[in-house]
Design goal:
The protein is α+β, with helices and mostly antiparallel strands and 299 residues long. Helix content is 32%, strand content 29%. It has six helices and 14 strands.
């Protein structure tokens, strides 16, 4: 309809046939308020969609900060990492990994902070920072993890952390890897015709003032591959069945001829494919691979 001044007037029309004569009775209602209400609903929906998009981008930004954009280029060694967030990736998880150069070699850290969301993200940032700073003054992987334990307790983080920390030093055609575990799954080493665990169990971090942690040394030879991973791999679930370490050992043994990147991708893909729907937990892996016939690197 139009008003007397020619401007449009939104209306609602309600019409019914009241009798057999064909007479139609109808009512007109001004719909100005309803139209404004619909416009406000549309604006609210657009604001919500922008907020959701901003929240998703914030989650992606936080998650990227826990995973380095690139791992170091180490002569004579292939290094690769892979990460798959839980669900649609719209909630910040606690999985992280890092690798960086230290005096005389390189350090590798991989861990899992209990829980998800902003609080877990704060603890994850604290853990990564501490693990990068501690090697300056701590002599061994177990000492570095102990330093993280003290920091978590001092800062009253309120969440426990599992972690594996390793130091890698070149030694001729080999690498010497020293590993310490804090409540974390054992790294797996594929060498020769076998796949075995590296390290000894240790306490989780952030709960007890004193933790039992052990350093274990292993020499990596040309052709060896080492897989570090978070529990999202072995705890991938199909109904009541877990993916489990046995499947992971078989996969690592079958894929050890691949490069580090191929192994990392195979592990993540198989863990994701094993469970119906979207992954329930974050998945993070780091792979070290010494190519067969590598040149000697002086330590």
């Amino acid at each position: 309809m139009r008003r007397a001044d020619g401007t449009g007037l939104p209306v609602l029309l309600n019409a019914v046939m009241r009798d057999d004569t064909g007479v139609i009775r109808f009512c007109l209602f001004a719909a100005t308020d309803r139209r404004e209400y619909e416009r406000e609903l549309l604006r609210a929906r657009q604001r919500a969609e922008r907020s959701e998009a901003e929240a998703r981008e914030l989650v992606r930004t936080l998650q990227r900060s826990f995973i380095p954009p690139a791992l170091p280029d180490i002569p004579g060694l292939q290094v690769a990492g892979a990460f798959r967030p839980a669900g649609r990736g719209d909630v910040v998880g606690g999985d992280f990994y890092d690798m960086y150069e230290t005096a005389g070699g390189w350090a590798l850290a991989l861990g899992d902070v209990c829980g998800k969301g902003v609080e877990a993200a704060v603890v994850t940032s604290l853990a990564r920072y501490t693990l990068r700073a501690a090697p300056i003054r701590e002599p061994s992987p177990s000492a570095v993890l102990s330093a993280l334990n003290r920091t978590l307790l001092r800062e009253r983080a309120g969440r426990f952390v599992t972690a594996v920390y390793g130091r890698l030093v070149p030694a001729g055609e080999h690498f010497r890897l020293t590993v310490s575990l804090a409540g974390h799954p054992h790294p797996l080493r594929a060498g020769g015709d076998t796949v075995g665990e590296i390290g000894r169990p240790g306490n989780v971090l952030g709960l007890l003032p004193r933790v039992r942690l052990t350093d274990v040394d292993v020499d990596l030879a040309p052709g060896d591959a080492v897989l570090f991973y978070t529990d999202g791999v072995v705890e991938a679930r199909r109904g009541e069945e877990l993916y489990g370490e046995d499947r992971l050992r078989l996969l690592l043994g079958a894929s050890r001829a691949m490069g580090a990147a191929g192994i990392a991708e195979a592990v993540v893909n198989e863990a994701v494919a094993f469970q119906p729907g979207l992954p329930r937990d974050d998945i993070a892996v780091v792979v070290l691979k010494i190519p067969a016939g590598r040149a000697t690197i002086e330590g």
